[in-house]
Every structure is written in structure tokens, then in C-alpha cells.
Amino acid sequence: AKAIEGLPRIAVVGQGGLLDVVLHPNFADNKRLYISYSARGAGGTGTEVMTGLFDGQKLSNTKVIMRALPKSRGGVHFGSRMAFDTQGHLYISLGDRGRRNQAQRLSTHYGSVLKLMDDGRIPADNPFLKNPERKQEIYSYGHRNVQGIALNPLTNDMWTHEHGPRGGDEVNILKKGANF
């Protein structure tokens, strides 16, 4: 097998690495692919999402559309599963990075699910647009480490599942602005 060219520099740290790969809903026409991965930066590592055109061998015209901030030195709970809704919005799950109480702070991305346009812009209906002290990409918060996300095709609800610290895993239906 030949390695895919055009991938970003991926930091393999603890539970971090290449985290998810999803195709744009119109991939057959636009060849757009999305990857989430852990990356180094000021303060440590954190989850990032890159999009690019995929021709079967390489990614080109790449652009990072999301960087989870702040980066941290921890190696756990990067989260990062992605899914598209029927309107073409991209949902991205982010773990609490092992800092449980930080998942309650809307000034960081820790422990949140983000909702973005397919090009990285923030949708006009996101719940925290009115307060500049909050990360406007956040759709829901208070998550530990969402490891699964899927669109229910019957109801168009976005479902997630996350790991509990000692069992007690959760399956949730995302709600706009909800604290999980």
C-alpha cells in the first residue's frame, strides 16, 4: 500500500494521532475529505481538522478549518469524531483533555461538540454567538470524551456516545447549547 501524500504533521501522543476521516456529503462531485488529528502547537498538543481535495493518492488544496484551543500537555481525551447533518454542517467532538472541570468553560474547546459550515465558518444559528468570551463554534458542552457521532436518518438528530470514567458510558442526542 502506498502512503497518502498531503497529510498534515500528525502528533502521536498518548491517545492522540490520526483521529477520524470523513467524506463531504457531496464527495462524489467535489472530492472533499476531512481529517481530524492531534497536532503540536503553543502549549502542547490539541485536535485540529483539515480539509482538502482527495484524488485517491494525495490531498491537495488543504486548509486547517479548526484548531482546538488551548493546546495542552496531556495525552488523553482528544475526542474527535466528525459527522455531517442534512444541512451540510460539520459536527466535531472534542474531549476534555483530562481536565473535567474545563468542559464547563465555554471559553475553551475542552469537552465540547462544535458545529461548523463545511468550510470552517461558524453557522448563524450556533447557540453562543452573542457572547465574545465564549467559543462561538461550540454547539454543546460538558462532554468527557465523545468517541462516536452519527446522524439518525429517521429524525435528523445527531447522536453521540462517550466513555464514562469507570463504565457509565453515555449515549446522547445533541441539543443546541446543552450541558452534558
Secondary structure topology:
Elements: E1 18-23, H1 27-30, E2 32-41, E3 44-54, E4 59-67, E5 82-84, E6 90-93, E7 112-116, E8 138-141, E9 146-151, E10 158-162, E11 170-173
Antiparallel strand pairs: 1-2, 2-3, 3-4, 5-6, 6-7, 7-8, 9-10, 10-11
Structural class: mainly beta
What share of residues is helical? Answer: under 10%
Counting DSSP H or I runs of 4 or more residues, the number of helices is 1
The backbone outline, from C-alpha atoms, is globular
**What radius of gyration results from the CA coordinates?**
16 Å
| Weakly predicted, low-confidence segments | none
Distance between the termini: 41 Å
**How many strands, what sense, and barrel or not for the largest sheet?**
4 strands, antiparallel
Would you kindly provide a brief summary of this structure?
The chain has 180 residues and is mainly beta. 2% of the residues lie in helices and 37% in strands.
Structural overview:
The radius of gyration is 16 Å and the shape is globular. Strand 9 (about 145-150) and strand 10 (about 160) form a beta hairpin. With about 180 residues, the chain is mostly beta strands. The longest helix is centred in the first third of the chain and has 4 residues, at about 25-30. The strands form three sheets. Strands 1-2-3-4 form a four-stranded antiparallel beta sheet, with no helix packed on it. It is built from one helix and eleven strands.
